[in-house]
Every structure is written in structure tokens, then in C-alpha cells.
Write a structure and sequence with these properties.
seven-stranded mixed sheet, globular, about 230 residues, alpha/beta
Length: about 230
Amino acid sequence: MLRCLKQVQFHGRYMSTLTSNQPNQLPWLFLGLGNPGIKFQGTRHNVGFEMIDALAEKLGISVSDVHCKALFGQGFVGDVPVFLAKPQTYMNLSGESTGPLAAYYKLPLNRVLVFHDDMQLPCGVLRLQHKGGHGSHNGLKSVIDHFRGNREFARLRIGIGRPPGQMDPKAFLLQKFNILARERIDAALTEGADVLKLIPEEGLAECARRFNNEQKYKHIRPPDILRS
């Protein structure tokens, strides 16, 4: 059984950092939602996991420990501690990991940011939000339930587009991307990791304002195959 660690060694720095009286040095918890297992790798529903991996690579953090039913890694951005986690509970039970992780570190929900797939956004378009509902996303619903109904946590919505025709949305989520969609997602992972690494020091509000403006009209740009 995956459990919360009794102690976490924090890269040789004192754990007193976590209880700093300076609000800007409070830790950030970044959580990517997805399903564990090889058969789910590369599917639309797992882009939250992929965003964690992209961010971990940017920050030089290994996400290989097991902590609170999640694959877990930790590091610093400047002087700000950051935690990266991929819940291993399967998507619909994501809250069983995210709730205990936030509680373990006694983090306010404004220091939690969840990455998840979103069919309401075009493929490869990203959106940073300060709060919101679950939008029928079962992983988010589980997270909210384990935060006792509190929705005051940030999200990075990762657009995967809508199912074509009459396709079952569940089947669509568990499919892998086609070549063009994969290219757009790979570009989005780079863009997302670039802005996420700025949040601990620059703050969510400023990063979201700039980033969302850049992403706003991304979906109406002509595809590469139509460009001369």
C-alpha cells in the first residue's frame, strides 16, 4: 500500500524553510492528474502526468519517490520549495492522494496547482486559472471532494479538443494523440513548463495574466500544414 512518508529529507536544506513567515517562500505543490500504467501512457487523459514530467525536467527534479499514494519529487525554485506529484490512485480517485499531500505539508489551497486534460479547450491550448469547478472531470471532482468541497485551488487546463462526431468521450480520453495533435501537445508541454517554473518566484496572478493572453488566440492560428 502506498502511504505518506514519515519523514521527507529536503535536499539537505532545513525543513524550517517550510514554516517560513514570509508568504512568498511558502512551498508550492504541483499535481498532475492521470492514470498509472504503461497502457495509459501517451493518452489524452494523461497529459497532466506529462506536464509534471516536462516541469520536472526543466527543474532537474526526479519524480521517483512514493509519498501519499503518488510518485513524488521535491526541489527549489530560488528559495521557494516545490513539490511535484503524480497520484497513482487512477484518475477518478485522485483526491485520495492530493488531499493527504496538501494536508501533510499544511499548505493553503492557494499554494496548490493541479494540471489536467480539458476537452473544452482546443488541442494544445493552455489556460491558468485561480479556481473553478470540476467541469464533469472526475479527477478534479475527486480532488474537490477531498478538499472538503473547497474549489479555491489553481489549475492548469491542458486542451485536448473534443471527440469527433458521435465518439464516446470516454473512448476519446483513453486514445493516444494523432501526429498533428501530438506535435501541438509537445509544444504545449514546453510552453507550460516554461511558465510554471516562474510561478514560485513571480506569483500566479502575474504569470497567468501574461500567459493566458499569449494563449488566447492560439487555437485560431492556421495549422502548420496550411502554412506556406
